[in-house]
Design brief:
Shape: elongated
Distance between the termini: 39 Å
Strand order of the largest sheet: 2-3-8-5-7-6
Structural class: alpha+beta
Helix content: 40-55%
Largest sheet: 6 strands, mixed, barrel
Number of strands: 21
Number of helices: 26
Strand content: 15-25%
Length: 841
């Protein structure tokens, strides 16, 4: 107890004049904790917003969706008995101004008189949505997105033609309460009443239409129990039913994945900052060597010295962690302002203690794990050695107990990563990767130091001095390569991944892509549609195939919801899938296993399936898949497996049935059309949509441009977040420069006394930091390229191409950063007068 009291007194007195020694320490710790606390708090705030406004987002307590068909009268009666019901109908359609020729694809939504059950439909001019949509003088009304108004030059009072109906634009949508959070939309919203839909002629047998029934359950009704009862009452309904716990499942998954990614970025920044923490602690203790030696000579025990300085480190760490947590606490307020109006709910402010406590725990564990080693080494050195340390800093390892506690801290840190990321596999990969990269950089730094020591001394004095400074005692070579290299490695890997994805999107896909997808072609329109397309000059190719929608119910006898599948193919189970049938293999079919059925096949349902998805399901030839098609369950046996080139954007289907199974089901035809020129594209769209108002045209180039914009935005966001890691590396570099500042001053003075000019000394420093930056960039480029290759070739299963421009730019950035920060930190050393330092003043 007495030792603790003495240690507290020493720590309190030491802290009075040592605050400036911990600036880099504080910055590194605050940056990493702020990143983790901010990401966690914003994610929690968004999830809280979804939970709070779940009824408004879902449109009711329950949402039941049918594809292609309405609910039966019996089912609708059951819905009405359960509570208030609002019906909506959603589809894609072509819209054009009645007195104009320009047309565009829109997301059409019909609503019943009870819409919306929760929330409010906000319009620019106010008013009730039902009154606005009601027919006036025989003309139904519509409200539209502002983007559609700008695109077609529409305003309230304008007439809009949709299908076979002429609709009057009545107002502009400000907020649609139940519009799903979506990152890919084929067009702006047009909303009209369900009573207007029959006049459009768009609701036809087999069309791609989704019917939603939103139900506000009677007070006191348990939603989960109602869903279970309803599924038991209608076991073959073939619907998709959601409760409040799945109000925005796609958005939930997106936020979860983004949170995991950004948390790992923040953790990477914190780990890089840990190197800065170790450097800062070591530098601080180096400047306190005389004090530590004096304390030991006066009888202070090793534990007293260690405790005194450990208390100081933890006090300073608490300040840095506190700064990071303050940012994390206000992050939801900032995020709420930034995304206001972009989401169908408000991001609630407030303090989210879970993420803050987690970030604080990461901060303290990182501080302990990276500071115990230098603390234990300095506290355990004898007094005589400490006095000699004023000339040469002590090296070697600390006693075993400090190594053990450092290892325990690192292990607890790893366990915390596993527990808090929500994905043990991802967390385990991150931990293994972090350890591997640290070992690689540590080994690379060691090799560079050994190479600098082994290389013959250059004849040029300044170059000889630069090389010697890379391996001299106390040189920052290892810490700079490790910390700055980690950030640069992330940038190299991201740059290569983005370059490869952009290359595939911009170079490979457009060469093979069709001009248009035409959907909702009715079977009786096929012949006239074909004639219309072929009559347009410049059309080089046309393909068409029947399509119906279905949902997977069982995989190899196991319910789809219970089947463990690869996360990469989970999307095939989450919703409805497009199905088709063919007697002969479609053009370009690449069979990898099994045989195609005879053209005149008649027998039990057979299925041609995607080989990669089959691997994800863990099934093969002879296994069965049960699908629900328009309320009828069909069990098909896998006959063969195909490789599908999705990049071609052609007629690719995961499920291709043998003849005799789907022909009688209500279905429509989809078609791809290839045009030589933009003029031909415009002409074929106009010809088809003029003759067939029910047919919608999806321009593939627009979809690719949207995908390109999304990729660019994602790339920018990822680079910005990855720059947090680079910033942490820069802080560590700055700390390394600061820690060696006093030694630089002595070096410069000695060189000046020996006759070196300022220019010579400056040249030596430029060479030293240039070599250090170049070495860091080489190691970063190598490791980053390997990571980029693994992601592209193994994870994304795509062709990898080395992008020299990205890697060279990163190497140049590394070298310039190192030289710039190095010179900024040592410039003052060149201005020091020799006499005071030689007199040891």
């Amino acid at each position: 107890m007495k030792n603790l009291s003495v240690a507290l007194k020493i720590a309190r007195r030491e802290l009075r004049g040592s605050a400036s020694s911990f600036r880099v320490f504080l910055a590194c710790l605050a940056l990493g904790v702020a990143a983790m606390a901010g990401v966690g708090s914003v994610s929690s705030a968004m999830m809280a917003g979804v939970e709070r406004d779940a009824r408004e987002i879902l449109g009711g307590d329950i949402d039941i969706r049918f594809s292609h068909r309405e609910a039966t009268e019996e089912q609708q009666e059951w819905f009405r008995q359960s509570g208030r019901v609002a019906e909506t109908v959603e589809m894609r359609a072509m819209a054009r101004k009645s007195d104009g020729d320009r047309r565009t694809l829109v997301e059409l939504k019909g609503v019943s008189g009870s819409y919306p059950l929760f929330g409010a439909m906000e319009l620019e001019n106010g008013g009730s949505i039902q009154e606005v949509l009601a027919a006036r003088n025989g003309v139904h009304g519509a409200v539209i997105d502002s983007s559609l108004a700008a695109r077609l030059g529409l305003e309230p009072g304008s007439r809009l033609r949709i299908g076979e109906a002429e609709i009057e634009v009545r107002d502009i949508i400000v907020k649609e309460p139940d519009r799903a959070v979506s990152f890919a939309s084929f067009g702006p919203r047009v909303m009209l009443s369900n009573a207007a839909l029959p006049e459009t002629g768009l609701v036809q047998r087999g069309s791609l239409i989704r019917f939603h029934y939103r139900i506000a359950l009677a007070p006191g009704t348990d939603g989960a129990a109602w869903i279970e009862q309803t599924n038991a009452k209608f076991p073959d309904a073939g619907w998709r039913i959601r409760g409040l716990d799945r109000a925005a499942p796609g958005f939930d998954r997106f936020i979860s994945r983004v949170t995991q990614f950004l948390t790992l970025v923040g953790l990477t920044a914190l780990l890089v900052g840990g190197v800065g923490i170790a450097n800062a602690v070591r530098s601080f203790l180096d400047r306190r060597m005389a004090t530590i030696a004096t304390l030991k000579c006066l009888g202070a025990s090793t534990s007293t010295v260690f405790t005194a300085y450990f208390i100081q480190i933890m006090v300073v760490a608490s300040v840095g962690i506190g700064l990071g947590l303050v940012f994390g606490a206000v992050a939801p307020l900032i995020a709420g302002k930034l995304v206001s109006g972009m989401l169908p709910f408000e991001v609630p402010g407030g303090i989210y203690w879970g993420p803050l406590l987690t970030a604080g725990a990461f901060g303290y564990l990182t501080t302990i794990a990276f500071s115990l080693w230098p603390l234990g080494r300095a506290g355990s050195v004898r007094a005589a050695q400490l006095f000699r340390a004023l000339i040469v800093p002590p090296g070697g390892r600390p006693p075993g107990r400090y190594i053990l506690w450092s290892a325990i801290s690192a292990a607890v840190l790893a366990v915390l990563v596993l527990v808090t990321t929500g994905d043990p596999k991802l967390a385990g990969s991150f931990i293994a990767g972090a350890v591997g990269v640290l070992l690689l950089f540590g080994g690379g730094a060691l090799l560079i130091v050994k190479a600098a020591r082994a290389v013959p001394a250059p004849k040029r004095p300044d170059l000889r001095l630069a090389v010697a400074n890379l391996h001299r005692p106390g040189a920052p070579t290892a810490s700079v390569i490790l910390s700055l290299g980690l950030g640069l490695t992330v940038l190299v890997a991201i740059a290569l991944i983005e370059a490869n994805l952009s290359r595939q999107l911009k170079e490979q896909i457009p060469e093979k892509a069709p001009s248009y997808f035409f959907i909702d072609i009715q079977p009786h329109q096929v012949e006239d549609f074909t004639q219309t397309v072929e009559s347009v000059p410049g059309i080089t190719k046309m393909e068409r195939t029947p399509m119906v929608r279905g949902r997977i119910v069982e995989i190899a006898g196991v319910p789809a919801g219970e089947r463990k599948v690869d996360p990469d193919v989970q999307w095939t189970i989450n919703g409805d899938r497009g199905l088709t049938y063919a007697a002969t293999p479609p053009p370009g079919t690449d069979l990898v296993e099994g045989e195609w059925w005879p053209a005149d096949y008649k027998g039990p349902p057979l299925l041609s399936f995607d080989a990669e998805i089959a691997r994800g399901y863990g099934i093969g030839i002879g296994d069965t898949i049960k699908l629900n098609v328009l309320g009828r369950e069909i069990t098909a046996t896998v006959k063969n497996l195909r490789n599908i080139e999705w990049q071609s954007l052609g007629m690719n289907f995961v499920f291709v049935f043998a003849p005799g199974t789907l022909e009688a089901a209500p279905h429509s035809i989809i078609s791809t059309v290839y045009a030589e020129t933009p003029e031909a594209e415009e002409a074929v769209q106009r010809a088809v949509t003029d003759r067939f108002p029910n047919v919608s045209a999806i321009r593939v180039k627009d979809a690719l441009e949207n995908a390109g914009r999304i990729m660019d935005a994602v790339g920018i966001a990822i680079r910005i977040t990855a720059s947090v890691t680079l910033l942490a590396g820069v802080l560590v570099l700055a700390g390394a420069v600061i820690s060696g500042h006093q030694r630089r001053i002595y070096d410069a003075v000695v060189l000046k006394v020996l006759g070196a000019t300022r220019r010579k000394v400056l040249t030596a420093y430029v060479m030293e930091y240039g070599l250090l930056g170049l070495a860091t960039s080489l190691v970063s480029a190598l490791i980053g390229t390997v990571i980029g290759y693994l992601v592209i070739a193994l994870l994304m299963r795509a062709d990898f191409a080395f992008d020299a421009v990205s890697v060279t730019a990163t190497a140049a950035l590394s070298t310039l950063l190192t030289i710039g920060l190095g010179l900024v930190g040592t410039w003052s050393a060149l201005s020091q007068k020799a006499a005071p330092l030689l007199r040891n003043e």
